[in-house]
Amino acid sequence: MSEAAESLKNVDSEHVQLSERIVRDINIGKYGPGEWLKQIDLEQRYGVTRIAVRRVLDELVAKRLVEHIPNRGYRVYALSPTQRREVSEIRTLLETAAAPGIVERATEKDIEDLTALAEGFKEAAYNGTILEQNEANLRFHLRLLELCANKSLVELITELRQRGPAAPVTRWHTVAQLEKASNDHFLIVDAIKNRDVEAMKTVITSHINDKGPERMAGGSSVKN
């Protein structure tokens, strides 16, 4: 590979890493809906150039994760109640469509990993900060999506999860809501263990749409 090609490859790699870091920080709630993203702050936070920051922000605008306000700057996209409901409806369709493949492909090791991640979120729900709760939630769902063989479907789900963000600080107002989120994770794992696609679809639908602390037989609870 020529020196020029190698240099271009490095630039592209750094660009992807910067984009992933900003998206991750938005997704776990470090930057909340409607929060302004000052380019100088991002430049200093991530140790990159202003040009690199601007390029990534423009791409995130195209993905509707960030919005650009002329003469003012960039801010995290804030969905209206109608848009949030519509995104939830689409996510429900896509994520329930992924369920059969996930159930079919999951190995014992995958189930062990998901159980450990569900336990990690349970711990964060009681003892962690809001950021730790969001990070633990994200780790569980990313590991779950790894089991879906349809990578185009995964890309669509991931994009929609990011558009929310998937687990915004405003979603978990009470311990009961955190408990439900944790219970849902265990119920998803139970459905995979039992190879029960319909049960998994039911839990996913409830989890996305926050239907309330409904429980299914065999589910775990965050209560000791």
From TrEMBL:
It holds the Pfam family GntR. Keywords: DNA-binding, Transcription, Transcription regulation. Residues 12-79 form the HTH gntR-type domain. InterPro entries: GntR_C, TF_FadR/GntR_C, Tscrpt_reg_HTH_GntR, WH-like_DNA-bd_sf, WH_DNA-bd_sf. It comes from the Bacteria. SUPFAM superfamilies: GntR ligand-binding domain-like, Winged helix' DNA-binding domain. This is GntR family transcriptional regulator. It comes from Nitratireductor aquimarinus.
